[in-house]
Amino acid sequence: MIPQSNIDVELSLDESIETSRTYKMAGDRIQGYIDGLDALKQAIYKVLNTERYEYPIYSFNYGIELENLIGKDPVYVQIELKRRIRECLLRDDRITEVDNFKFEFNEDQLKCTFDVHSIFGNLTISREVNF
């Protein structure tokens, strides 16, 4: 016979958002900590400046593919860049929407400016790409 137990176990399930506190990058140094919108801005900078599949330290879900846009038609680059930026940024749970894309062509360079909406507030980000 298996003994019965009347122990009540109460589980507390907190649905809280994890902190976004991280180390602050200051040029080539780490200086202190940042949180909230500043931490998100830094995370966006890092993901948009890391070539996807290039570095074995990152998973294949991290970064953005930009190198294979070199030499392509400017209209294709514009359409594809918008899709790739949205795809890589919306993986972050803190980001709710990426929109309002604006493009400026300058010889063989494309400057893309867009808005990022997050749980901390909104940011306007720019990224330049050679094609």
Write the layout of secondary structure elements.
Blueprint: E1 22-26, E2 29-34, H1 36-48, H2 74-89, E3 95-106, E4 109-118, E5 121-130
List keywords for this structure.
alpha+beta, 2 helices, three-stranded antiparallel sheet, Nuclear Transport Factor 2, Chain: A, 131 residues
In total, how many beta strands? Answer: 5
Q: What CATH architecture do you see? A: Roll
Strand order of the largest sheet: 3-4-5
Largest sheet: 3 strands, antiparallel
Structural summary, described in words:
With 131 residues, this protein is α+β, with helices and mostly antiparallel strands. The chain has helices at residues 36-48, 74-89, and strands spanning 22-26, 29-34, 95-106, 109-118, 121-130. The strands form two sheets. The protein has a three-stranded antiparallel beta sheet, covered by helices on one side. It has a two-stranded antiparallel ribbon with strand order 1-2.
Brief characterization of the structure:
This protein is an alpha+beta fold and 131 residues long.
